[in-house]
Each structure stands twice: as structure tokens, then as C-alpha cells.
Amino acid sequence: MTPRVDERASVMVAVRHKLAATPSVLPDVRCLVRAAAAAYNIGTETTEDAVLVAVELVSNAIRATRRPITLRMFVSKDGFHIEVHDYAKKQPKKGEPDLAMPTEPVPDDAPDPHGWGMTIVQALSRRHGVRKERSGKTVWAVLRITSVRRLTLP
């Protein structure tokens, strides 16, 4: 997957992936983001932030709908763009995570705490938002590209 350059727009063409709305796709999302980041040569720090942001956006979309979702990524002069489209009309909300310390041992099968997703997206992105669509919504984030160097792998 090597993104093409659109000479008219002077930006790289976006990569788009249709995903099932199930948590089993989250490891694939991590791989897809890393592959796109490598193709765009955006650097290690931005790549790791992008992985976290994409996983949070996709996780929210999975909770919102059972229909397929779309992950879209591209680079522009503004930074590395991540967009997740789902068919739900409900807007994501910044939650209030429960910071209370447990008073008893937490069982291994206890559900993970929620409420951190949009806080993480806000902290790691330059800008983020929601675009209403006729067929649902697109939640997006733009990350600053801090470096175009990548670590050399063995």
C-alpha cells in the first residue's frame, strides 16, 4: 500500500479501509495505521500517537453501531488526518472516567473502565471534531507531524 500523490491537489491520496464493527478489528487498525504512517514517512512519535487516536475513534464507532465502519487516513500540510465514519447519528461525548481506587480486588473478567477515549484524542491531536453525514457521522483528528525520521529496524 503506497499512497499515490495527486499532482493537482499536491497531497497524498487517502488510504481507506472498511472494517467490521467488532472489537476483533482493533489489532488490524493498529497495523493499518502503522503501515499508512510508514508509507507517508511521518515519523515514530506521530505514528504511535496516531495508533492510539485511531484505536480510540474506531472503538467509539464500534460501540455506536453494528454496521461496517470506515477508517480513512491521509497527510496534508496540516498534518496526519485520521477519520472514522460510522452510521450512527449519536455524537461522541467526552466522558468522565472513574478515577476512584478500588476498595476490593478487581476480578480478571471485570469490564474495562470507559471515558478516556475523547480525552486521549484531544490530548494527542492538533484539532479534532465531528462531521455530520447523511449516512451517520465522521469523527476526525489531525495530528502534528513531529518528524519524518523513522527508527531503523533490525
What do you see in this structure?
The chain is of the alpha+beta class and 154 residues long. The chain contains 3 helices and 7 strands. Helix 1 (26-40) packs antiparallel against helix 2 (44-64) and helix 2 runs antiparallel to helix 3 (117-124). The longest helix has 21 residues, at 44-64. The chain is globular.
Per DSSP, what share of the residues sits in E-state strands of 2 or more residues?
Answer: 25-35%
Number of helices: 3
Decide which structural class fits the backbone: alpha+beta
Q: H/E order of the elements?
A: EEEHHEEHEE
Compute the number of strand runs: 7
- The low-confidence runs, each spanning 5 or more residues with pLDDT under 50, are 5-11
Distance between the termini: 22 Å
Mean pLDDT: 84
- Major sheet attributes: 5 strands, antiparallel
Radius of gyration, taken over Cα atoms and rounded to an integer in Å: 17 Å
The coarse silhouette is: globular
Strand order of the largest sheet: 3-4-5-7-6
